[in-house]
Specification:
- This protein has one domain.
- The chain has 204 residues and is mainly alpha-helical.
- It contains ten helices and no strands.
- The two termini are 35 Å apart.
């Protein structure tokens, strides 16, 4: 794989990671309502899920989905259900008050944030479509296992780095205090976004 091919893959992955969506809403919500550790856990585990999609795509996910439309349909519905569940959970949290207290924040374990970050990526069929569209353009240049791993690591690394940056920026004390005062509005906004994404997935 040449440097120009890798830079093309890198640029598309950056644009894909920075596109607002349910993943951003989850990382923001856990950072604001939890802590820096919660946001980082969601970011890192989300990147692992992205890496999983990239790996499966490189190793033949496109062929599997083409030959098994029923499997892809079930995956789509599972992803929509998970998005809707996260959205309702955020809306329910927004009804409880302006922000979480320190004691309430402590009740949400960091592993829960990581699990939600992982599942929001694993159950997002749009990531499958994204990587099928992306890697189909470049997989012909990935003649070796090393080249294929570079594609996977690039996709996961860009995603993880972007959301880690988001979590670190939002967890700065001055920014975080301001956001925590508006936490209930952030919960409502993220809840609406997640449910809207779920409905969009189902109706497409």
């Amino acid at each position: 794989m040449t440097l120009s091919i890798w830079l093309s893959i890198l640029a598309i992955c950056v644009l894909g990671a920075m596109t607002p969506g349910p993943s951003l809403a989850v990382v923001i919500r856990y950072t604001v309502n939890g802590s820096r550790q919660h946001g980082l856990a969601a970011a890192v585990l989300h990147a692992l899920g992205v890496g999983g999609w990239a790996l499966m795509t490189v190793w033949g996910l496109a062929l599997l989905l083409t030959q098994s439309p029923l499997l892809f349909q079930w995956l789509t519905w599972a992803g929509a259900a998970y998005l809707a569940w996260l959205g309702f959970k955020a809306l329910r949290a927004s009804a409880g008050g302006a922000s979480l207290t320190v004691e309430e924040q402590a009740r949400v374990p960091v592993w829960r944030a990581g699990l939600d970050g992982l599942m929001i990526s694993l159950l997002n069929p749009k990531l499958a479509l994204f990587f099928i569209a992306l890697f189909s353009q470049f997989v012909g240049y990935a003649g070796s296992l090393g080249d294929q791993l570079v594609m996977v690591v690039t996709a996961a690394g860009v995603d993880g780095l972007w959301y880690v940056i988001v979590a670190l920026l939002l967890s700065r004390s001055a920014v975080l205090e301001r956001l925590q005062r508006q936490a209930h509005w952030l919960d409502r906004a993220s809840g609406v976004i997640l449910i809207a994404m779920a409905l969009r997935v189902v109706t497409l």
